[in-house]
Amino acid sequence: MLSRIALRSVAGRQSATTALVARGSATDAVGERDEKNFPRPVRGEPGKVRLGFIPEEWFQFFHSKTGVTGPYTFGVGLGTYLFSKEIYVMEHEYYTGLSILVMVYYASTRFGPKIAQWLDKEVDAVENNWNEGRVENVKFLEQSIEEEKAAQWRAQGQELLIEAKKENVLLQLEAAYRERLMSAYTEVKRRLDYQLEKSNMERRIAQKHMVEWIVANVMKAITPDQEKQTLDRCIADLSAMAARK
Q1: GO MF annotations for this entry (predicted)?
Q2: How far is CA 88 from the centre of its chain?
Q3: pTM score, whole prediction
């Protein structure tokens, strides 16, 4: 049992070494590897045995042909045949081997599971130690990817901020343009109002002077006799109007 465990542990270490080498080469080309189509190899577990050393496959082979007792009957019959025909002679070496077999069986059943557990822990420790660098590299790459995504997100935010600043500048330019346009409109309107007021003032002054000139000339043209006749005629008209009422 111990020799079988040792061979399995060595085979397991060799397979683990091969798997780790394959994993190391796959890590160098992680971008080209498809985990779905090419799954990573895993360490295989040893098969089941009966009586400490007989593989389970032998019993399954006899079970389909001879039933459950077939393998045991075959073993007992084969041993009886070998002993009866003295093919296998039971000399002093036989009893020595039988004693050693009993001791080996007792040691394997008593200490075998503990030794196998200890060997599995050692193999797992070695595998974890070899995988530590790969795991750290994967974590570093994942962190780099997350940082790159965050940087891209921040870059998109900067683009939005730049667009907002551009729109703000355009709004400021539009406000300045409208302010200057209003200022020009106000100034032009003020000057036009001034010209209009000036023209109206000149027209009123001209009209006033013309009226005064006409009145003065008319007053000069009226003689005292004409003024008296006009006054008498007005009084006569007023008297006629008063009489009609």
Answers
A1: proton-transporting ATP synthase activity, rotational mechanism
A2: 75
A3: 0.33
